[in-house]
């Protein structure tokens, strides 16, 4: 793949320096950040999570010199903001892609159905492993759609006596635990096959 000329040559070094002054620690943060972004895109059902992760880093690379000067706080938050924008743009990208509807490729429906059943089974198992309070919190958090979702989450935070941001952090941690549990469960199921 040809190198994007709009990305400055030293931007990767600048990103690492921004993530952490210690180069080894910065490298670890970089790898974890890539994994986190890929998971975020996958959880949001984006068509190409790895490609969108690359795009997020490319966008940051183009602006890292100017953003780093004035940005306050954890630089990972800037990456998450770029990812959020890419998720919003994702449906537009899908419309631009070529449709494979009329091709003669066999549809692996049985495999997809089996995979979906395994994921659902693992989700239920992992939800049961959570404490009742955490399980109820995450189920309530994802219960609504669109504006009702926003209103519901605001009300949840008010009832818990915390900010919406603190609620997001709590749910993010629970979701991370669930993701890990589901991945392990799927691995065990696939090994049994």
What does this structure look like?
This protein has 193 residues and is mainly α. The chain has 2 domains: 11-96; 109-192, Arc Repressor Mutant, subunit A, CATH 1.10.10. 77% of the residues lie in helices and 0% in strands. It has 8 helices and no strands. It has helices at residues 11-19, 23-43, 49-70, 75-96, 109-129, 132-141, 146-160, 164-192. Helix 5 (109-129) crosses helix 8. The longest helix is centred in the last third of the chain and has 29 residues, at 164-192. The chain is globular. The two termini are 37 Å apart. The model is unreliable at 94-100 (pLDDT under 50).
What sort of overall outline do the alpha carbons produce when their principal axes are compared? globular
**What is the tally of helical segments?**
8
- As for the number of domains, it is 2
Q: Alpha-carbon distance between the termini? A: 37 Å
**Series of H and E elements:** HHHHHHHH
Number of strands: 0
Strand content: under 5%
- Computed over alpha carbons, the radius of gyration is 20 Å
User: What kind of sheet is the major sheet?
Assistant: none
Low-confidence stretches: 94-100
State the share of residues found in helices, binned by percent. Answer: over 70%
The structure class reads mainly alpha
Q: What's the overall average pLDDT, rounded?
A: 84
